[in-house]
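**User:** Everyone, produce a chain:

**Assistant:**
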Amino acid sequence: MLGSEDVCLRYGSQCCFIDEGTMVAIAASTIGNSPVYGVRLEAAPGAVEWFFWCGEHRDDVDFYAPYHARHLVEMLPIVVPYLALEPGFKFIVDDAGYEDVWRESDERLSLPGVARDEKAR
């Protein structure tokens, strides 16, 4: 199971751990840029639950690619502690310690709509 109970407690989320076979979408071409964004959506079984990108979001059709969550440990280890946040949560983090985590409860979730005080690029 991937995720951190501590992160869920800190942000008032139920712990909804994911297993290593859960499908996530990663904008692999952006890895290495900062900050790192994560959005968890309500998903049907077997569908993508999490979307991750780094730095600028693009609307390119091939921006995201599907991966199993197990690949996050190597590709984007900074996101692993947030994986148990329940659907509806979004976060922005970086290697310098910046962290912003929130639940989108008042608006419909969509991508890339981070719609929160987006970190200056």
User: Anything to note?
Assistant: The chain has one domain: 5-103. The mean pLDDT is 88.
